[in-house]
Amino acid sequence: MSPADALSPAEAAENTAQAAVTPPAEGTQDAPWHHLDRRMLLIRPVLDLVKSLPVLLGALLFGHGEPWQWIGLVFTAVAVFTGVSHVLTSRYRITEAQVEWHTGLLLRKQRAIPRDRIRTVDVTSEPKHRLFSLAAARIGTGRHSHGKGPGKDELVLDAVTTAEAQRLRTLLLHRKAEAVATETAAAPPEQLIAAVDKRWLRYAPFTLSGLAVVGATVGTVYHFAHELHFDPIQFSLVQTVVGHFADTPAWVSLVLAAAGLLVLVSLLSIGGYVLSFWNFRLTREPAGTLHIRRGLITTRSVSIEEDRLRGAEIREPLPLRLAGGARCVAIAGGLREGKGADKGGGLLLPPAPLARAHEVVADVLGEDPVATPLTRHPRRALYRRLSRAVLGVLLLAAALYGLAWLGALPDWPWQAALGLVPFAALVGWDRYRGLGHAFTGRYLVTRSGSLDRGTAAVRCDGLTGVVVERSYFQRRAGLVTVIAPVAAGKGKYLVLDVGESDGLALADRAVPGLLTPFLTGERDRG
């Protein structure tokens, strides 16, 4: 699928109009070429050497007198040479129609991105860049690659000065600057919409980001200890702690361990919050662009054209929801949906009070459709959620019971699984309580989820169509799921388990006329 295929008709028309009025970027097709900053040569070889360190150490430590010892050395040399040649040979230029990039010494690469397809310019400054006041500029289009690295949807200039990165952001995103120059002559440089508040640190422990860090650390340590045949019990400190817990009643040990884990996770979560959202600022620039800046060690600057906004979403993970907090995420074309919206650059507000998240949505969209009262879904949706939640736990308990019967496991795992049935039923009920949908103005609003609840408002004129689907069990219950595809955000937003008649009416209203022939045929047969 080409980038144009991912755009709605409205976006395609808008891009054509913008391309017609875009002023020349660098003059003519003979625009000058720019190179990456040569100061990156002081950093890139060191980084490549660190990446190749496992291979190099393996060759030096275990390859004495062996021919394959030289393979590790050659591999390291090639990696360093490739990195240096990338910095020396990479060049780029901005013409009236496109952004061109050439690189390579032995294997040459050339790429070009049409300027009317550019959606975002993401400026990131990691510690390696900040040593020399450099930055990495990621020029993104409306496509989403599914690989691990940057694909054809993104062009990365990994070593430009901070001033050059800001120039690229202004040049590539503010294409209508001349058209609005007279309107914004007396306007302030930018309007502040939201800034981080130190009091919001109280929401950090409820994000559970520290729990992920603890889990990853424990897993890594266990893996290396297992590979090296190393027993941590050999440490006297570990022996003292284990001996203390062995002489303490089980319930006391459990409470102490839980309390220690809670304190550790909270401290790590607060640290992660500070590193990620330090100096967070969301501003609106006169040219109609939202500008997001955040980060302590690694700073990040993302610009989103408001013309590309297709809505907003408020996300409330269960712990954060219990604390009265939420995050706000933009639904915009061209933003990368990484592992979480924080990674993708569309974060409009970090974990903060729910009321503040609604204020940001209202300021960004001009209204707050997310606060609209939602229509509840039929009780049959409740039965589906209860049965699926409870049945999953019962199947797990049955499997554990079978393993215990075969002697592979003791009896307590399946008994503990049965004890989870009430909690599973509670989660199923909460998932039903979170279901809802509504129409307000030009937005379709849908909400779903319990452990990670999301309320999304999507502009109907930004939808690329509408899909109505139902499974065998949904047909028996008289329910359907309405899918609203959009070339932004997650790519699609679901209205789960709505009544069949209400779902068809909802789909027909979201994209008027699209389902009219089918609905008319159903009425005629009726």
From TrEMBL:
**Low complexity: bias regions:** 10-20
Q: What is this protein called?
A: YdbS-like PH domain-containing protein
> Which InterPro entries does its entry note?
UCP026631, YdbS-like_PH
The lineage's top-level taxon is: Bacteria
Cite the residue spans of the region called Disordered.
1-31
Q: Which residue ranges does the record assign to the YdbS-like PH domain?
A: 89-171, 432-502
**Which Pfam families does the record match to this protein?**
bPH_2
Which regions span the lipid bilayer? 68-88, 203-225, 250-275, 386-406, 412-429
Keywords, comma-separated and alphabetical = Membrane, Transmembrane, Transmembrane helix
The keyword Kinase appears for this protein? no
* PANTHER family named among the record's database cross-references: UPF0699 TRANSMEMBRANE PROTEIN YDBS, UPF0699 TRANSMEMBRANE PROTEIN YDBT
The organism encoding this protein is: Amycolatopsis balhimycina DSM 5908
